[in-house]
Amino acid sequence: MTARTVAVSILAATACFASPAAAYEQWQAATRAAKAMTGDIVFRPTLIHFASGASLPLQYAGQVPGLTSMPRGEKARVDLYRVTAPAEPALFRGNSLCGGPVRYLSVAKTDEGIYLSAYYEKPRYFVDGLCAGFQYQPSKRLGKAPADHRLKGRLPGSPNNS
């Protein structure tokens, strides 16, 4: 191994271990439907974790103006996320988001709260592929996320909490 190869290997290894985990947020279910189906949520741009213990891996797909339905016609930035492993997460009481694989989620944050919508296909307009919509309130920013497997059972309202 040459000195250059060793230096490049050390740099690559350092970058892998030094990269910070994405900051994540805890959202508190704000409506009866959100409380009954999803419960509180832990969200970061690469993962959404429901209080039932189910989660979906995400990839940011860009901004889509006016995609999420919001009361009183509020204007908000709407971020679209592609579910990288489409699935139907098991929610509370046997509920589901789409009745089939969820492929996209949109998130809009306003003064009134956070609006999450689920889609079974890539939406071009509000109604395209819309399965479900829920409202949340920001609970607190939790900082750096622990490893994904450590989130399971550690959310308020999770049946696995001890």
Task: Explain this structure.
This protein is 16% helix and 40% strand. The chain is an alpha+beta fold and 162 residues long. It has one domain (22-151). The chain has an 8-stranded antiparallel barrel. The longest helix is centred in the N-terminal third of the chain and has 16 residues, at 3-18. The radius of gyration is 18 Å and the shape is globular. Mean pLDDT is 75; it is low at 1-21 and 146-162.
What attributes does this structure have?
162 residues, alpha+beta, 8-stranded antiparallel beta barrel, 3 helices, globular, disordered C terminus
Task: Write the SSE topology.
Blueprint: H1 3-18, E1 23-29, H2 32-37, E2 41-44, E3 47-50, E4 55-63, E5 78-87, E6 102-110, E7 113-119, E8 130-144, H3 148-151
Antiparallel strand pairs: 1-2, 1-8, 2-3, 3-4, 4-5, 5-6, 6-7, 7-8
SS content category: alpha+beta
Percent helix, as a range, is 10-25%
Mean residue pLDDT: 75
Roughly what fraction of the amino acids lie in strands?
35-45%
Give a short synopsis of this structure.
By secondary structure, the chain is α+β, with helices and mostly antiparallel strands. It has helices at 3-18, 32-37, 148-151, and strands at 23-29, 41-44, 47-50, 55-63, 78-87, 102-110, 113-119, 130-144. Helices cover 16% and strands 40% of the residues.
